[in-house]
Amino acid sequence: MNGQIGAALAVSTVIFALRPDLESGFSTLWLPLVRRTREPYLDQWALPGGGLPTDEELAGAAARTLRETTGLTPKYLEQLYTFGDPGRSPGGRVVSVVYWALVESDEAALAVVDKNVQWFSADHLPPLAFDHNRIVEYALWRLRTKVEYSRIAHAFLGETFTLAQLREVHEAVLQKALDPANFRRTIESSGTVVDTGQRVAGVPHRPPRLYRYNDSVHAVDSGALEPAIG
Amino acid sequence: MNGQIGAALAVSTVIFALRPDLESGFSTLWLPLVRRTREPYLDQWALPGGGLPTDEELAGAAARTLRETTGLTPKYLEQLYTFGDPGRSPGGRVVSVVYWALVESDEAALAVVDKNVQWFSADHLPPLAFDHNRIVEYALWRLRTKVEYSRIAHAFLGETFTLAQLREVHEAVLQKALDPANFRRTIESSGTVVDTGQRVAGVPHRPPRLYRYNDSVHAVDSGALEPAIG
């Protein structure tokens, strides 16, 4: 760690939530973006974020800038990757430590929405400021890889859920329809969920069973995305 | 990405290789460390690394500082995590982007070893400079988690290997003995390795079969540790 050379440091955050696609009605991944109010990239959409003050933890700066712009305070906010290509920002090198989070729909509904903060479908983004399209693509890739071997889908669901709700999360993340019977067999044989013995209230005829995650199964991830470190 | 505030940026690298434990003879994880030749932490051991020049890619800086100090040029060098606690470096904040790599024993044997570069057993480290003990602990944790669901062990092996060699890698990483018959059944049923039809040369009586990784199986990771991005 000799001879460090100063560089501008920033944090940015990718937040995913499930929302219905406006055309198909199926759940898809959405994320909030913030309109830039200064150059460079004036008026273009960008990930929530900002510069890193000298005395603030990286995760703290990510949480604060996210809260200030969108009003969101996700339970899980974890480091995704650090982007530092010399040419990624005009007018001087900026290294961005990127965090990410998944939020439940109820939580997502609390986000600020105005002319400078809006939700976009993750697979239909406009050209974003800086290399933020590439950052979102990387986050999507990580999410789609992780959903297959971890309980990451849990972050989108409440404490209990139906198998149909769990399947819907997998379908939204993987962008493909899954056969309900096959999905049920796969999930049940994995042992990752437990039948709570309860059923959805207020459904008169054959209400669906409610499941919860099986905490006794070793989770690859301890949090939503990546284990907390420390 | 407004209002970025300058901070010192550095890169460091954790390199793991398998070497026999000096007492037990069993394979264990080792890593090369570099003795610091200046303050702070003069004469203490530290991860290979250095400051980030303005025009160098993060991964390029990690590879260069690693090569300059240890002579190693790993095939896979991937981003692990960015450490940026305000108090982690005396005399001014330093944010370190940490890379990691796994190297085969043949490659590790080419590393420079002198009074300022030495290999240490990953589980028996002296107090290192800065927060480097914590960084190594985090890397070990990630490695031990990943070996269970990815083909990460491959990075320690050549193109073909015996099941005993593969088991030895898992044993070294997980720090526990694995039953050979159970391990064989688990690996064979996973479909992740393929019998090449060849056997180890030069062994007259029942030479062990040689296997290779099954490239048609979806790999969670495309490289050694983390998929390349870009």
UniProtKB/TrEMBL annotation, chains A, B:
Sequence ranges assigned to domain Nudix hydrolase in this UniProt record: 8-144
Keywords: Hydrolase
Keyword Aminoacyl-tRNA synthetase appears in the UniProt entry: no
GO molecular function: hydrolase activity
Entry-linked Pfam families: NUDIX (PF00293), WHD_NrtR (PF21906)
InterPro entries for the chain: NUDIX_hydrolase-like_dom_sf, NUDIX_hydrolase_dom, WH-like_DNA-bd_sf, WH_DNA-bd_sf, WHD_NrtR
PANTHER family the record matches: ADP-RIBOSE PYROPHOSPHATASE (PTHR43736), SLR1690 PROTEIN (PTHR43736:SF4)
Protein name stated in the entry: NUDIX hydrolase
Organism, scientific name: Cryobacterium cryoconiti
Lineage: Bacteria, Bacillati, Actinomycetota, Actinomycetes, Micrococcales
